[in-house]
Amino acid sequence: MSTRINKYLSEVGYCSRRVADRLIEEGKVTINGKIPEIGTKVHEGDQVEVEGQRIEKPKKQKNIYLAFNKPVGIVCTSDRKVERDNIIDFIKYPTRIFPIGRLDKPSEGLILLTNDGDIVNKILRARNNHEKEYIVSVNRPINRDFIQSMSNGVKILDTITKNCFVKQLGPKKFRIILTQGLNRQIRRMCESLGYRVQSLKRVRIMNIKLDVPTGKYREFTKEEILELNVLLEHSSKTFD
Fold first, then answer.
1. Sign for the pseudo-dihedral over CA of 7, 20, 64, 221
2. Rg of the chain in Å (alpha carbons)
3. Which of 47, 118, 169, 230 has the highest CB neighbour number within 10 Å of its CB?
């Protein structure tokens, strides 16, 4: 039985597949002492190392699922050597975990962390249309035209954003629920309409709500895990 190297590193809880691909491209991963290509498969008995550190599948691994309230200024990366203000060093969790997706450094709010590579791919895959909810404040008053434009789609990054739910909460504040994950999507949408985001907080990912103080985390409840599994039941994983 064989497994692609990026999937192997994800399944053992070392990092996400995206980070694994980058480590492979940088020549930091070896299989039996040789630097592999992206897509190379790991076979039973192969010795996998990252920067000289032996990486093995644990015999029994408890799945960890954390909901963390990220402060502004913390970077959602598991690469601790590249980014000093990384989320892993901030949390200091006793076992290896990695973030599910990203939340910009200037943004705050809910980010999920896990050692379960399978659930990462199901949540992140765009075609699965999983909801993420945000509270956003901008630099000047918003109006009905702004809400309608944001709801119906805005041209950014050579595409039109999907229709989404947007509700005004105050003169300069609104709630938005996305099922996409384009790079800096909300900020780019606002900029396209002549607004600048002043604060952005994610308050929900699917059925997981933000309910801990800034800089703190909690484990998922059993009920949340059960509901999440139901929501992900028909979700596609990243292709092997």
1. negative
2. 19
3. 118
From residue 106, give the alpha-carbon distance in Å to each of 25, 147, 205: 28, 23, 19
Evaluate whether 102 touches 83 at the Cβ level (below 8 Å).
Answer: no
The pLDDT value recorded for residue 24 is 94
Query: Cα separation of 141 and 153, whole Å?
Result: 20
| Annotated catalytic residue, options 104, 116, 158, 211 | 104
Domains in the chain: ranges and CATH = 2-55 (3.10.290.10), 65-117+212-231 (3.30.70.580), 131-205 (3.30.70.1560)
pLDDT for position 240? 37
- Give the model's pLDDT for residue 185: 96
In this prediction, residue 71 carries a pLDDT of 97
Q: What is the pLDDT of residue 198?
A: 98
pTM here is 0.75
d(C-alpha 47, C-alpha 34), whole Å: 10
Question: For tokens 């985001």, what's the residue?
Answer: 197
Find out whether 220 and 206 touch, Cβ atoms under 8 Å.
no
- Tell me the per-residue pLDDT of 32-50, one tens digit each, with 9 for 90 and over: 999 999 999 999 889 999 9
Catalytic: 104? yes
Cα separation, 19 vs 64, in Å, equals 19
Q: Which residues of the chain register pLDDT less than 50?
A: 238-240
